[in-house]
Specification:
It is a single chain. This protein is α/β, with parallel strands linked by helices and about 250 residues long. It contains eight helices and nine strands. The strands form two sheets. Strands 3-2-1-4-5-6-9 form a seven-stranded parallel β-sheet, with helices on both faces. A two-stranded parallel sheet has the order 7-8.
Length: about 250
Amino acid sequence: MNPETQFTQQVVCITGAGHGIGLAIARAFGEADARVCVNDIVAERAYGALATLQAAGIPAMAHVGDVGNEQDVRALFAAIDQQWGRVDILINNAGIEPVHSILDHPLCDWQRTLDTNLTGTFLCTQQAALRMKAQGQGVIINIASIAGKSQPLYLRSAYAASKAGQVGFTKEAARELAAYGIRVNAVCPGVIITPMTERLRNDAAQMQRWQAEIPLRRLGTADEVAALCLWLASDAASYVTGVAWHVDGGKNMA
């Protein structure tokens, strides 16, 4: 392991970490010697992730809560305070992706998507940044999407809007929080092999379209997203902030 990507005794909070990309990120930081807090809105997923990490010898805690709810977010960071007394790295990963036409998109699903994907990013960033400011340093990474840049997804207007909002928020947060030694970046995955893409991955025609559109001719893995997060959080990226990084096999080169 490169010493620049070791996180000995650092505390990392990953939202939506019960499975998929979030769990891969949690595992990667744990293997790099960090202490890991996994958050998920589903208790079974949160505690399942905790068991997986602890079985690997990773110091970890779990917290169940909705990142779109301010009281839940305050409770999440209070629990981290009680357990470890600091937070060094925040990964805003929690997200949902409803499928609807704009013409009949239920307002409740639109609002829930923005609450989770965008407001959740704001609320968790606010709580983490208050602690990082007192520490004089910290790293925040927002898991956005190429859907929030120049690759919108069909029938996913709320998702695309929320992810575009995350990218814009990342840049503003990076500009404002730099004064306190806090770096903020976004990671924009393309099509990644996760539970969220499982249904579409079982569609042979869809897989053929994806592979034709992706220069590397394959889907990405959650571990490949996690690897970029490790680098962005590390001292090797100490002069990097305010950037939205693609992990998409070359699908979006803008």
